Amino acid sequence: MTAPVGREAIERLADAALERAGRSAAGVEVVVQHAAGGLTRFANSQIHQNVATADLSVGVRVVTGDGRVGVAGAHTDDPATVADTVDRALEIARVSPPDPEFPGLAPPAGHAEVPVDDATLGMSPGGRAAVVRGLLDEVPPDFEAAGAFSTDLSELGVFTTAGQRAYSAVTSVQLSAVVTGPSSSGYAEQGGRALTEIDPAAAGRVASAKARAGASPVELGPGSWPVVLEPAATGTLVQFLAYLGFGGRDHLEGRAFTAGRLGERVVDEQVTIADDALARETVGLPFDWEGTPKQRVVLVGEGVAVAVVHDRHTARRSGGASTGHGLPAPNPYGPLPVNPIMAPGDGGSVADLVAGLERGLLVTRLHYTNVVHPLETSITGMTRDGTFLVEDGRVVRAVCNLRFTQSILAALASVDAVSTETAYASELFFGGSRFPAVRLPAFEFTSSTTYG
Description:
Elements: H1 7-21, E1 27-43, E2 46-63, E3 69-74, H2 79-94, H3 118-121, H4 125-136, E4 144-160, E5 165-180, E6 185-192, H5 200-213, E7 223-229, H6 231-245, H7 248-252, E8 273-275, E9 297-301, E10 304-305, H8 312-318, E11 340-342, H9 350-355, E12 359-373, E13 378-391, E14 394-398, E15 402-407, H10 408-412, E16 417-425, E17 433-448
Parallel strand pairs: 7-12
Antiparallel strand pairs: 1-2, 1-4, 2-3, 4-5, 5-6, 7-17, 8-9, 8-11, 9-10, 12-13, 13-14, 13-15, 15-17, 16-17
C-alpha cells in the first residue's frame, strides 16, 4: 500500500498556500487530505479485481476583510499549484456575497493521537489475496461468495492563519462477503482500525451458515412483527437516526425531530447513542475538517435526547462551541455525527435475544434503505441475506425477504433487550462502527418478496 505522505510534506503544501494568501486575504484555511488504499474484490468465489488508489487533495478557504468567503481545490503535490489555488479562491470570494455569520477560522488547539497500524500499511495484494482465501476456504462447494477486502490510510492536515496546525493519520480495514446458494444468501462484515480486527475464516463461516440456513424460504405476509435485529440491522437504524436528527444545522432550522425536544425521552431507556470518533468501536480522526478537536457527544442518554453536534457556524448561531463535527467546505449539510455508536446492554448474545422471542423474525441486515419522512425518522427498505421465523425461542424456518416502512423512533420507543455482544457494521457515508443486536416488540413490514 502507498506509504503516508507525512506531516512534513503536508505542511509544505499548506505553507505554500498560507504564504501566498497572507498578502491578500484576511484569513486562510488549508485542508490537505491524502487517501490511499488497496482493494481486492471477489465474485463467484474468485478474485477478479485488485486496485490500488492514492489521492492527494488540497482545499483552500479564504476570507476577505469584508467577510466574503471563497473555496477552491486542487489534486496536486506541487506547492506552486497549491499557491495558485489561493488566487482562484480569492476570485470566488470577491464575487460572493458577504457571510455575516462566518464564525472565523479555527484557533490553535491540541488533539488526541490515534493509532496507525503498520500491518495495514504494509499489506500487499498477495496479503489481501491470502485473507480472501481464508474466507473462501470456509464456503461450501455448492455455494459461491462475493465481496471485498480493503486496507486504507487516511491523512488529514488543517492549517489556518488563526494558528491551528493539526495533522493526523488513521488506518482502517474492512472485509465483507455475501455467500449465495440456489435460493438464499448470507452475509458477514468485519472491520476496524487494524488487521487484528479481521478473521476471514470466521467471516466465511458466518456468511455460509446464514446462506445454508436460509435455503428454501417461505413467503410470509406483511404486518407488525416482533423482531431481533442483528448488529448490522441495528447499525442501519442508529446511523440513519444520527443523520436525520442530530446535525446542528437541521436542529436549529427545525428540520430535525430534536428541534425543541432536547431533554425529552425519545426512545426506550435501554438506548444510549453517542458520537465518538476516538472510541475503539469506530474509526475516526481526532479533529474535523475545520481543525477543531473532536468531542465525544452523547446524542441519546438512556432514552433521552441529550445534544446535537456542531461545527463553527452552528456553534456560533446556538451560542455554544463547536463539537468538532465540521465537514469539508463548501458544506451544504452542516455538521453531522459520522461516528455514531450504540452502547451494548445486558441481554447476552444474539442467540439469547432469539431465545426470548415467542414468535417473530430474526433479521440479519437491512438493504436499500432510504428516507421517507425526516421529521418522523421514517425509512424504508428490505431485509436481506437471512430473514428467519422464530417460534418459542427457536429459528424454525427461513422466510422470503420483506419490505419495511418504519419510524426509527417508533421502533426504538420500546426495546425488550439489547445484546452484550457487538459487531462491526457500516452504512452509506458513515464510517463503520460496532453495534449491539436489539429485540423489539414491533417492526412494520409492508410487503413480502418471492425470494430469499
